[in-house]
Amino acid sequence: MKKVKLISLMSVIVLLSSCNSITSTFNTASTTSTMPMVTNDLKMEVAKNVNTITELYAAGKSKVGSEGEEIARNKAEVLAKDALRKAIRSEAYKDIRQKLDVANLKTGDFSDYSVNNYANEIAVKLLNESEKRAEFQTGNTEIGVIYVLSKDRVKEETDDFFQEKLQGEIDRLQNIKTTN
């Protein structure tokens, strides 16, 4: 199977605990059955809609011959990597927001906008840590890869980020509240 450069990889993320319908979508995939079904993983699949990517692949191949395969694969992977980043960001956002809610801090540097930026920073850092688990096929045509990142790894990174960048500011703000 042809290796794909990490830089061009893109996939769509779903939590494995909610991917039963996605797994059934890829029943014809030759390697899907070998993927571990671990509920603590963030999983990305190549396409939200297999038909869309298959059609893109076919159209690209018919227009430019053998180069069409690469064009179709690259398009699918571009969409997919952005989705993985968003899934990691979502996990990080929830974890940071929960910590801030416990500290009763919701404004200023801890607004939803700021927390989203913090979470995105974490997602960008972790994106390259995602682990390739399997390549899969639709019909006879290889169209993509599946990557996995542990939710525990996202939590570890969020905890480190929180301690390094936010805990001092939280302590300062809580001291101001206490003295007033």
Automatic annotation (TrEMBL):
Domain of life, per lineage: Bacteria
Keyword Signal: yes
Signal peptide: 1-29
Family annotation (PROSITE patterns): PROKAR_LIPOPROTEIN
Keyword Signal listed: yes
Record's keyword terms, sorted: Signal
Protein name listed in UniProt: Lipoprotein
Organism from which the protein derives: Sebaldella termitidis (strain ATCC 33386 / NCTC 11300)
